[in-house]
Write a structure and sequence with these properties.
The chain has about 500 residues and is α+β, with helices and mostly antiparallel strands. It has three domains: about 130 residues, Immunoglobulin-like (Sandwich), CATH 2.60.40; about 100 residues, Immunoglobulins (Immunoglobulin-like), CATH 2.60.40.10; about 220 residues, Rossmann fold. Helices cover about 15% and strands about 30% of the residues. The chain has five helices and 28 strands. The strands form seven sheets. It has a nine-stranded mixed beta sheet, with helices on one face. A four-stranded antiparallel beta sheet has the order 4-3-6-7, with no helix packed on it. The protein has a four-stranded antiparallel beta sheet with strand order 12-11-15-16, with no helix packed on it. β27 and β28 form a beta hairpin. α3 crosses α4. The chain is elongated, with a radius of gyration of 40 Å.
């Protein structure tokens, strides 16, 4: 028994004595790349999610070196990543290489090994290695990297109009279009947009826009023509692939464009069905020997509700509606006791700055005296009285103010239609009072109901003017305003 134990001990000792003299050499790891789930390499888009892994027969994998040219390598500890492969043509083939590296380094930082310098933790963020910063001590790399070819097929871009940007059925010679472009290969691969008006067959009809453009306003000089029009748009990527052509309107229809007939625009902001439209038409047709006969009317009220604007208003007040106003030198804007103040607030200041003349008439609800803005933003008044006149009797006189002599007396008509929400106006310091109500037991003093701006380019009436034509003087007043204040001869 003792002999057997002795022999066993001698054998163990002999085996141990061979290890230091015959060490097993470190072997490099093997690297693998995955195909698509079904094992088939397909032509696909430029965004690739690539997976890889490694196996070290005598240790552990510390990380991977990856490359797209088998020459320039970068280190990662990840087993996958999404790459956006740039397109250089309609179709491109990319090669991807990956080497697994084991963890049996020499303990010394290699400044520039066969695959570049070993990675480090840039603790101070200066982009360079500094003494003391930890680094990854890399061992052996797989001498035969795993590699795959990725055939990349270019995907054409896609363009669509922004929701809610539809052009109205009818516009003047101003129209705005807004869109969103995208591309499966990355939105940055869109090179440009091209648009055309009415004709897509003639190559010269297509105009080019930078890729950063997603909003365009066109005018008559850009090709908008009186009559039926269609706007076409497409995107083109860096490989020359084109999107499907989209059109506005987005059916087989068209939208109608009309050129201004005169220098005057009548903005119809009036809801009730009465004689208001006929009144302004008859007055303007006869002004100055018919100079404004057939003046254009912009209906901004039809289809309006508490949650939506009128159907003929463009989606973008700025710039479309503002630029439409600028097509005209004079604007008569008449409204009921629920005026579209937010549209006037957005558009009229800019219109006036460009030299426009405004004759504005309306009654004002509670929202008009909001201290945050409203009518005071665009009209020559600082405020309105908080308590309105609830009822104006028939026969009530509106008389020219002392500082504005020479204008006719206006008389409330006998039509029987109520006139309400009339408020006393408090003018801005450089403005002038134009009309006051006569004294009455129904209100205190003589409320100011009309004001003109200091430069005489904005006339504000806080009464429905067509309801104060009981003696036929309202038309005469408009004529005098255009002559005396606006300078029309």
């Amino acid at each position: 028994m003792r002999i057997r134990i002795l022999l066993f001990v001698l054998l163990i000792a002999a085996g141990c004595s061979d290890t230091p003299n015959n060490p097993v050499e470190n072997r490099p790891p093997e690297t693998y790349l995955s195909l698509h789930p079904d094992g088939e390499l397909r032509t696909t888009t430029s965004r690739q999610h690539i997976h890889w892994w490694g196996d070290d027969p005598d240790g552990f994998v510390a990380g991977y070196l990856i490359s797209f040219d088998n020459a320039t390598w970068s280190f990662t500890t990840r087993n996958d990543s999404v790459f956006a492969l740039s397109l250089s043509g309609s179709d491109t083939v990319y090669a991807f290489y990956v080497r697994a590296i084991d963890d049996q380094g020499n303990g010394v930082r290699d400044a520039d090994g066969p695959y570049g310098p070993e990675p480090f933790t840039d603790e101070n963020g200066n982009g360079a290695y500094d003494a003391g910063e930890p680094f990854v001590d890399l061992g052996l790399a797989d001498p035969t990297p795993a590699d795959l070819r990725y055939p990349i097929q270019n995907s054409p871009p896609v363009v669509e109009f922004r929701q809610g940007s539809d052009v109205p059925d009818t516009t003047f010679t101003v129209a705005t279009f807004a869109w969103i472009g995208s591309d499966l290969d990355g939105d940055q691969t869109i090179r440009e947009y091209q648009y055309a008006l009415n004709d897509t067959l003639d190559p010269a009809s297509w105009k080019t826009l930078p890729r950063s453009t997603d909003f365009l306003t066109l005018f008559e000089e850009d090709g908008l023509r009186e009559g039926e029009n269609v706007f076409y748009l497409k995107a083109v990527d860096i490989a020359g692939a084109e999107s499907r052509i989209i059109r506005m309107p987005d059916t087989s229809g068209t939208w109608y464009v009309k050129k201004p007939k005169t220098e005057l625009l009548i903005v119809d902001d009036y809801g009730p069905s009465d004689a208001s439209a006929a009144f302004y038409r008859s007055v303007t047709d006869t002004l100055f020997g018919g100079r404004f006969r057939g003046a254009d009317v912009f209906d901004i009220r039809t289809g309006a509700s508490t949650t939506s604007r009128g159907i003929y208003l463009p989606p973008y007040i700025n710039p479309t509606f503002i630029e439409t106003l600028k097509l005209f030198r004079y604007v008569i804007w008449y409204a009921d006791n629920n005026p579209t103040l937010e549209v006037a607030q957005l558009s009229l200041p800019d219109y006036q700055e460009r030299g426009g003349h405004v004759f504005y008439t309306a009654s004002f609800p509670e929202s008009a005296i909001d201290p945050r803005g409203g009518i005071t933003d665009f009209a020559p008044i600082d405020s309105l009285s908080p308590d309105p006149i609830r009822f104006v009797p028939m026969g009530t006189r509106a008389e020219p103010a002392a500082e504005s002599p020479g204008y006719p007396v206006l008389v409330r008509d006998n039509e029987g239609v109520p006139v309400a929400f009339i408020r006393n106006m408090f003018r801005k310091i450089n403005a002038r009072n134009l009309y006051r109500f006569e004294e009455s037991t129904r209100w205190e003093g003589q409320p100011v109901v009309a004001v003109r701006s200091g430069d005489s380019r904005f006339i504000l009436f806080g009464i429905p003017l067509h309801r104060f034509n009981g003696d036929g003087n309202a038309g005469t007043l408009i004529y005098q305003i255009f002559r005396n204040e606006f300078g029309v001869q």
